[in-house]
Amino acid sequence: MATTGTESLPASDQEILLSRVFDAPRELVFEAFTRPEHVVHWWGPNDFTITIHEMDVRPGGVWRLTLHGPNAMNFENRIVFLEVVPPQRLVYEHGSSEGDPDFRTTVTFTEDGPRTRITFRMLFPTAAARDYVAKEFGAIDGGKQTLDRLAAYLVDLAKPRSTSS
């Protein structure tokens, strides 16, 4: 069974809501989402790479990363975790620097038999802030691409590893 495509769900004018089902158990999806050795392989839109400077996934923990775009542009990101409930939920504030957060994200990991649904809810302080991030940074398409990359990574991660004799 294949993963389903990412859906952009109806949302308020201050939020972006994305959801996708993965053919992987919830614990594995949560691990792929919270461990830097996994995240480095899939986080960000297509043709982006990532440098993780620190990733402390616990309430109050900070995740600092740089997204490297295909146009040689770098995007500094700073995430502060507010809630970490393995393997069910992450809540974090996402910003671009040491200043105030740009938006709050809630990621839920819902078990559906052997499958897992991730739902991203990005809540912005105003509709204008949401529209700016959606237009200037392509947040909706970028979010869909990021979840597509996670789906591909999970397929690879689930493959049996050969052992040398």
Question: Layout of SSEs?
Answer:
Blueprint: E1 7-8, E2 15-22, H1 26-34, H2 36-39, E3 49-55, E4 62-68, E5 74-85, E6 89-95, E7 103-112, E8 115-123, H3 127-136, H4 139-158
Antiparallel strand pairs: 1-2, 2-8, 3-4, 4-5, 5-6, 6-7, 7-8
Features:
165 residues; alpha+beta; Alpha-D-Glucose-1,6-Bisphosphate, Chain A, domain 4; 4 helices; 8 strands; 38% strand; globular
What does this structure look like?
The chain is α+β, with helices and mostly antiparallel strands. The chain has one domain: Alpha-D-Glucose-1,6-Bisphosphate, Chain A, domain 4, CATH 3.30.530.20. 26% of the residues lie in helices and 38% in strands. The protein is built from four helices and eight strands, in the order E-E-H-H-E-E-E-E-E-E-H-H. It has helices spanning 26-34, 36-39, 127-136, 139-158; strands at 7-8, 15-22, 49-55, 62-68, 74-85, 89-95, 103-112, 115-123. The chain has an eight-stranded antiparallel β-sheet, covered by helices on one side. The longest helix is centred in the last third of the chain and has 20 residues, at 139-158. The radius of gyration is 16 Å and the shape is globular. The model has no long low-confidence stretch (mean pLDDT 90).
